[in-house]
Design a protein that fits this description.
The chain is α+β, with helices and mostly antiparallel strands and 371 residues long. The protein has ten helices and 17 strands. Strands 1, 2, 3, 6, 7, 8, 14, 15 and 16 form a nine-stranded mixed sheet that branches. Strands 10-11-12-9-13 form a five-stranded antiparallel sheet, covered by helices on one side. A three-stranded antiparallel sheet has the order 4-5-17. Helix 4 crosses helix 10, helix 6 runs antiparallel to helix 7 and helix 8 packs across helix 10.
Length: 371
Amino acid sequence: MNTERLVKMFQELVSIDSPSFDERKMADRLTICLKELGFAVSEDRAGEYYGGTAGNLYAYREGTLPGEPILFSAHMDTVEPARGKKAVLHEDGRITSDGTTVLGADCMAGTAAILEALTEIKEEGKDCRSLELIFFIGEERHLRGSAVFDFSDIKAKESYILDLSGSLGRAAVQAPSLVDFQITVHGKAAHAGFAPEKGVHAIAAAARAVARMELGRVGEDMTVNIGHVEGGVKATNIVPDTCFLMGEVRSYSHERAEAQMKKIEAIFREEAEKAGGSCEVRYTVPLHAYQVPESHPSVSRFRRACARLGLPGTLEPTFGGSDQSNLALHGISGLVLASAMEQVHSCSEYTTVSELETVTELVKLLMMDAE
């Protein structure tokens, strides 16, 4: 393996500013790399849909091994603080940012691994499967890039997403539905000193509703959270007439997640009406639950590759989201692979040279698997 080239590519990708919906420079660099590797590359108009600077990248290259194409994917955006990133290589092999930004190993480690694996296969003249690659925008904003991608022309039925943190040799085979909700409780303003009885206290009504909710871990496969609350005006003498709340429900059962959301909505409407007010409830479902059976070809291929590399080949559920959720909605089953990124979404994020090497070898074996 050309470790020096791999690390330099990772450092270059990290240095490219690519916060969500400002992925233009990243898309341009990846397009050049992929064309040099013999891929036909196209870009959709997802950026226009969100007011961003770039669309999702799709690339295809015919293989020399039989079988349907395999799809590999990563996302182009990074969470904030994402501008001015620098990948600092330490003597012990750790790679960190300078401490003022995230590193961007999420998701540039997986991206660098894909590019290096392809480069090595080309240089060595190895046979590999037909490959489809998709690099999505806006993944960190609830998978918005893959949410509007046109999957109708995708040939692959199996996928590998390089977007899981933690030790290598693990893969997520199950992920939850996520219901993201916003609730506004409407009351009535009044003077809190002279006529509080004429007001309808929106914050109090919302608080009674929250007190009735099941929060935290609900049963074995669900979590519920209220993450943000604000209400009233910056004055102590006014009965607040609004209270705004944001929260989420996650469950491995899509039906249970939706049922819990309906229960939450009913509680808020009841408490608002009892107080003499009303409420508005809005929610979206950016993640849909899926599960890949252990008998699936993507699992068998992953386990073969892990065995050759001495990795555990562990299958596990995740309560996080990835673009695989939207792939699964369109009949493309696959795994989310641990891909050399640690302590993601923080300025303490890091990777290591050895992990980059290992995930590259793993991707390479998956691409060259003839079974």
